[in-house]
Write a structure and sequence with these properties.
The complex is a heterotrimer of chains A (about 575), B (about 300) and C (about 325).
Chain A: E1 18-27, E2 34-43, E3 48-52, H1 59-67, E4 75-84, E5 87-88, H2 94-100, E6 105-108, H3 112-115, H4 122-133, H5 138-151, H6 157-162, H7 170-182, E7 188-192, H8 200-217, E8 220-225, H9 228-234, E9 237-242, E10 245-251, H10 252-257, H11 262-269, E11 287-298, E12 310-321, E13 325-329, H12 336-343, E14 351-356, E15 359-360, H13 366-373, E16 376-379, H14 383-386, H15 393-403, H16 408-421, H17 438-450, E17 456-460, H18 468-485, E18 488-493, H19 496-502, E19 505-510, E20 513-519, H20 520-525, H21 530-538, E21 544-545, E22 550-551
Parallel strand pairs in A: 3-8, 3-9, 6-7, 7-8, 13-18, 13-19, 16-17, 17-18
Antiparallel strand pairs in A: 1-2, 1-4, 4-5, 9-10, 11-12, 11-14, 14-15, 19-20, 21-22
Chain B: H1 11-19, H2 30-47, H3 49-52, H4 84-119, H5 121-136, H6 139-150, H7 154-162, H8 166-180, H9 184-191, H10 196-233, H11 244-251, H12 260-287
Chain C: H1 6-45, H2 50-55, H3 61-71, H4 77-89, H5 103-138, H6 143-157, H7 160-174, H8 190-224, H9 227-234, H10 239-264, H11 267-277, H12 282-292, H13 295-323
Helix pairs in contact in C: 1-13, 5-6, 5-8, 5-12, 6-8, 7-8, 7-11, 8-10, 8-11, 9-10, 10-13, 11-12, 12-13
The chains are: A alpha/beta (about 575), B mainly alpha (about 300), C mainly alpha (about 325).
Subcellular location (chain A): Cell inner membrane
Protein name (chain A): ABC transporter ATP-binding protein
Keywords (chain A): ATP-binding, Cell membrane, Membrane, Nucleotide-binding, Transport
Chain lengths: ~575, ~300, ~325
């Protein structure tokens, strides 16, 4: 593993696989904007270096520049050098650059679905790497492809070769990407958020695979991520970026225990601890939302498509009391969002009942439902899309109250108060959503939901699209609102850390069913079901207590990967 | 997908901003400006035709048949001695009425149909089959059939030209509605108890406006062209009402002798369609840079 | 997911393919029905006596009565429609009012020139438009791109007959390279055939070159933005492979759609081109029918061309399944 070395990138030693020196990237065009400002970093042989930052930090641009893949006509490197095994990428001629790709440096991307060509078979996509770069004959290429596919632990290699990307699972696709990147055994692998689009259990397997291959082939890895948990698990050294500049760099243990810069410190403290909150004392016994035997089956067999309906939710029993927070956690496809959309009656459940303050709403018609709608409101995942870009903030917030007969002036007055409640200036009311940041937009969406004075707020992955520091603020806001208004919260999330921080009770869902349900402290602290344990173990960085800059109490082997010293 | 790109990196917004056209005076591109000027001149000429035209466009003068271009007859005269310049000026009126009329009617009929089709499944199934059927009929043949059945008045020609354009508008509106109704802000509106008409009017309809304006310009250009073709083939409005198409139609016999009979109206016809198409393209670029482009954040 | 066991895999794929094709064929039936219904109602619902429209101005009362009889105009609409559909299915598209020959015979006599024109036009179009579109997208924003786009706007803005007369003026009258007008069957020699077909084919091709080059460019631009194109570049593949193997293959579906519908609707352009170049094909038949108010001919042409449109669209739909593995389920 990576040799201990001082962190001064400028003093790059000869043997480094990657040396980036004073890189400056700007937008092209009349008024260039600086995207990367004087960034230097190094990656030693066999080392895993993490490049961490929030959105807009320039970490992905840095990685694209290293591959010589900056989007033409939009971004261009203005100065600096990028040396891969001593050869400058920025000054290489296009033909030379093509030769270097896949043989010296390779890259894997965030979305394995879109990064693979949908109309070419897996074998064809691997084969073209070999034929573009080597003089291997067809038989050698065939056997090499099979060799690398088994190296990344894909099952049934022969059939995998003939498959197309859409026939594979997300994890399998990312394995194919890794095989493709490593088939010519380059010295440097650049991984740009390679696990962000994957479920935690898959993420764990992919991270393990990268580590395993790295050990076998001695590859250096430059790993781009926003996730401090992943960093804690895999990094030898860390570079922290913000707004295109390098903030801090150092060995992983130094960064985690003694960060020097405030920004790094903030990033770490914003990561919610995986230790579950203690359930708060129940203030009310009143059940506001209850589902029993709730089920949702999508699709039916048609004349030509004899398909079983997809069971998205099955026999879901949940109960939420006033002022409490119930979390539903699970991976993609677990049915957690289906449950949320059912209780909102955005989709109609196929079986079971939903009772809102005792009233059955599962079977109500559109008009009969109307008086009940205002009692349950939703906060959506992506605040960029849940606010109509054409309406002012005020129009969005007052739409609901006006629907229920509140006079416009009164509704606007209330909207001003709500904006202040969620931490925005009252004059935000006449502006449009695009004038706000993502976190602010989510606050507006919360204000819109609160304008209806609901008994229940459904938050569907409401902080998942936000940067970790913003995420922490929005979670605090929700907590604060709950205390003040006593609203009950149904909180859907894939992130166990978030669930641990905010939920009183938690239900773990898998394949449409609730597999474990109880107080958060018990479910996450002492899981009874294998699947729950699997989820917890897959949570990245679970051995580290980020906000306190120390290992989790009682955790062993806090940093398996930490350099020898 | 569970997590939408949590950390879209710096490149994203920057690149997008670059492709967003800025509308500033200094940025005015040459082609659209020229197109707008050309079109304005043609429109004004058409409106003021009775004042500008030196002759009555239908007054025959057997003494001056097939005269060459001269100061008295800038574009020459036709086989009946009618002044081609005057006829071309009046012909512009016909083309513009048909173009604007077809665009208006197609939008007025297509917009509500598209909105409803985008929202009601059953209606959608029926309506779209009808539209598919209409699209299968070549527009010229359809127009010819209507005109030859109902006679060639301005109204039948307008109806004949507009019918084939309607399915395109309906499909466009419907596709915009279908994708917009998946947007979370529409679900949010449902959640706050907004009624269906309110959702359509406030949240869905505005999305269709930009593509509709663009589509309307293409309908306009296409209608002008179809009218010219109909007249050229002899299925348009009678020659007592001059139109660019029927001037050319009458000029065909004498083409080798007097090419001007075809070229002058042909030039104005081409210029008008070209100008409208260029303005349509510009409108598309300015109003909605991602029109027809993929994913949005 | 890889659901099926390996042995069933190929069988399953063939099944899905057949099911897909069957679904597409079934889906095109309603379109044909709507077309037929529309054409049927067009005649019946037009103000005035359909028999009088069909018989022309000179008809005697006996003739009118005969036509009413043969169309069953005295019966209810539904049974008229069924009778009519039955006639169509048995190949009876009616007779010309002028020559009293069956319309299908008339159409058969005029098919060759039109087919020749359509095929040559198609060849010219495909050879020029797709490379133009690909290069324009590849060199997005360059002079080449702008030139292609400018030519494209010109191409579909200038009406076919204007283009036709300009080409005749330049190449036939001024340069005397080609005969001015007319048609010679390919049976009478390739030279005479080509010398007469080149100008009309090129005239007609201008619209389609414009349309398809534009569509190719748009589809390519979209695809070139995709992640897998970036992946292909990251693999160190040459630009040629990136463009043609990765990008064009994925852009093929929208391009093929435009090519298909463009050619399915070519009849409109053919009518005009044939009358400019004096080619005795379906276009001329149409124009003669207009002048003589020979409605049965127009009606048959509509039914025929709509049928061609539906068949071509069906073929395109089926070819999607071969080009895009995702459609193969």
């Amino acid at each position: 593993m990576g040799a201990a070395r001082n962190t001064d990138a400028a003093a790059a030693a000869e043997g480094d696989v990657l040396v980036v020196e004073n890189l400056v990237v700007e937008t092209t065009g009349r008024n260039p904007v600086r995207i990367i400002d004087d960034v230097s970093l190094t990656v030693a042989p066999g080392e895993t270096v993490c490049l961490v930052g929030e959105s807009g930090s320039g970490k992905s641009v840095t990685s694209l520049a290293t591959m010589g893949l900056l989007p033409k006509g939009a971004l261009a490197a203005r100065s600096g050098r990028i040396l891969v095994e001593g050869e400058d990428v920025l000054s290489a001629r296009p033909s030379r650059l093509r030769q270097m790709r896949a043989t010296r440096m390779s890259m894997i991307f965030q979305e394995p679905m879109t990064a693979l060509n949908p109309v070419l078979s897996v074998e064809a996509q691997l084969d073209e790497v070999l034929s573009a770069h080597g003089s291997m004959n067809a038989a050698d290429r065939r056997s090499r492809i099979r060799e690398i596919l088994s190296l990344v632990h894909l099952p049934d290699v022969e059939r995998m070769c003939g498959s197309f990307p859409h026939q594979l699972s997300g994890g399998q696709r990312q394995r194919v990407m890794i095989a493709m990147a490593l088939v010519l055994e380059p010295k440097l692998l650049i991984a740009d958020e390679p696990t962000t689009a994957l479920d935690v259990t898959t993420q764990k397997q992919i991270l393990k695979l990268i580590a395993e291959i790295q050990e076998r082939l001695g590859t250096s890895v430059l790993f781009i991520t926003h996730d401090m948990g992943v960093v804690a698990d895999i990094a030898d050294r860390v570079y922290v970026m913000r707004h295109g500049k390098l903030v801090e760099s150092g060995r992983i243990d130094t960064i985690l225990t003694k960060p020097e810069r405030d920004y790094t410190r903030d990033l770490l403290t914003a990561v919610p601890a995986l230790s579950p909150r203690a359930a708060r004392r129940a203030t009310s016994k009143e059940t506001v939302l209850e589902t029993s035997e709730l089920g949702m089956v999508y699709g039916r067999a048609s004349l030509f498509r004899k398909r079983e309906g997809t069971v998205a939710a099955e026999k879901v029993d949940l109960r939420l009391t006033r002022g409490r927070t119930l979390g539903i956690v699970g991976e993609s496809g677990s049915g957690k969002s289906t449950v949320a959309r059912c209780v909102m009656r955005l989709i109609d459940p196929t079986s079971g009942s939903i009772r809102l303050r005792g009233q059955e709403i599962a079977g109500l018609s559109r008009s009969a439902l109307r008086p009940w709608r205002k009692r349950i409101q939703m906060i959506f995942q992506d605040p960029n899309r849940s606010l109509n870009p054409r309406l002012t903030v005020g129009d969005s917030i007052t739409e609901g109250p006006i629907n229920y007969g509140t006079p416009k002036s009164e509704a606007r007055e209330r909207a001003r108060q709500l904006l202040q409640l969620v931490g925005l200036p009252a004059d935000a009311i006449d502006r449009h959503p695009h004038q706000f940041s993502g976190g602010q937009r989510q606050r507006i969406a919360i204000a819109r939901a609160l304008a209806m004075e609901p008994d229940v707020l459904v938050a569907d992955e409401a902080v998942s699209a936000l940067d970790v520091s913003v995420q922490a603020q929005v979670l605090d806001l929700l907590d604060d609102i709950q205390k003040r208004l006593g609203v009950a919260l149904l909180f859907i999330t894939h992130d166990l850390r978030v669930a641990a921080q905010i939920c009183d009770d938690v239900a773990v869902m898998q394949r449409g069913k609730v597999v474990e349900y109880g107080p958060t402290a018990e479910v996450l602290g002492n899981p009874q079901q294998a699947y729950t344990r699997e989820l917890i173990e897959a949570a990245p960085g679970r051995h580290w207590d980020f906000p306190n800059f120390r290992p989790m109490p009682g955790a062993e082997a806090p940093l398996q990967n930490s350099p020898g010293g | 997908m569970e997590r939408r790109d949590a950390t879209a990196d710096a490149a994203e917004p920057v690149i997008r901003r670059q492709f967003l056209p800025k509308v500033a005076l200094s940025d005015l591109r040459l082609a659209p400006t020229i197109a707008a000027v050309c079109l304005a001149v043609i429109v004004i000429a058409a409106l003021l035709a009775p004042l500008i035209a030196p002759y009555d466009p239908i007054a025959m003068n057997p003494m001056e048949r097939l005269a060459s271009a001269s100061l008295t007859h800038p574009f020459g005269t036709d086989a009946y001695g009618r002044d081609v310049f005057s006829r071309t000026l009046y012909g512009a009126r016909m083309s513009l009425i048909i173009g604007v009329g077809a665009a208006l009617v197609a939008v007025l009929v297509g917009l509500p149909l598209g909105l409803l089709a985008g929202f009601f499944r059953l209606l959608d199934a029926v309506l779209m089959r009808v539209m598919d059927g209409l699209m299968a009929i070549p527009s010229i043949l359809l127009a010819i059939a209507v005109v030859s059945l109902a006679g060639s008045s301005l109204w039948t020609v307008l109806v004949a030209i507009t019918i084939p354009e309607i399915p395109r508008v309906v499909r466009l509106v419907r596709s915009v509605v279908l994708s917009a109704r998946e947007e979370p802000y529409v679900e949010a509106a449902i959640a706050v108890g907004s009624s269906l008409p309110k959702i359509m009017w406030r949240h869905l309809m505005p999305n269709t406006l930009a593509p509709l304006i663009v589509q309307a310009t293409y309908v306009c250009a296409s209608a002008i062209l179809t009218e010219a073709i109909l007249s050229f083939l002899g299925a348009g409005i009678g020659t007592e009402t001059p139109s660019w198409g029927n001037i050319m139609s009458e000029g065909r016999l004498y083409f080798q002798l007097k090419p001007g009979l075809i070229f002058w109206p042909g030039l104005f016809l081409s210029l008008s369609i070209l100008a409208i198409n260029i303005l349509g393209d510009t409108a598309r670029d300015v109003l909605d840079p991602r029109l027809g482009k993929k994913r949005d954040g | 997911m890889l659901g099926a066991a390996p042995t069933d895999f190929i069988a399953a794929r063939q099944f899905f393919m057949l099911a897909y094709i069957a679904r597409r064929i079934l889906a095109s039936v309603p379109v044909l029905v709507v077309v037929a219904l529309f054409v049927f109602l067009l005649l019946r619902l037009t103000p005035g006596d359909p028999a009088a429209i069909l018989a022309g101005d000179m008809a005697t009362p006996e003739q009118l009565e005969r036509i009413r009889e043969s169309l069953g105009l005295n019966e209810p609409l539904a049974s008229q429609f069924l009778t009519w559909i039955g006639q169509l299915l048995s190949g009876d598209f009616g007779r010309s009012l002028i020559s009293h020959t069956p319309v299908l015979t008339l159409i058969g006599q005029r098919l060759e020139p039109t087919l020749s024109l359509a095929i040559v036009t198609m060849l010219i179009t495909l050879l020029l438009s797709i490379p133009m579109g690909v290069v324009a997208a590849w060199r997005h924003g360059s002079l080449t791109d702008n030139a292609v786009m400018a030519m494209s706007v010109l191409g579909f803005s200038i009406p076919v007959f204007v283009t036709g007369y300009i080409l005749i003026q330049i190449f036939a009258i001024d340069l005397r390279l080609f005969p001015v007008q007319g048609f010679k069957s390919i049976g009478s020699g390739v030279g005479p055939f080509l010398s007469r077909i080149v100008l009309p084919a090129f005239t007609l091709a201008t619209i389609y070159i414009a349309l398809i080059a534009r569509m190719t460019r748009a589809a390519m631009l979209e695809v070139l933005d995709e992640d897998y194109v970036r992946t292909a570049r990251a693999k160190g593949l040459s630009e040629r492979v990136v463009l043609f193997r990765h990008a064009l293959r994925n852009a093929a579906v929208p391009i093929l759609t435009v090519v298909g519908t463009g050619f399915a609707l070519m009849i409109s352009g053919v009518v005009v081109t044939e009358s400019v170049f004096n080619i005795p094909g379906l276009g001329r038949l149409t124009v003669d029918a207009i002048l003589a108010r020979d409605y049965p001919v127009i009606q048959a042409l509509i039914l025929l061309t709509s049928g061609i449109y539906v068949v071509i669209n069906l073929l395109i739909d089926i070819s999607y399944a071969f080009m895009d593995p995702r459609i193969r389920y």
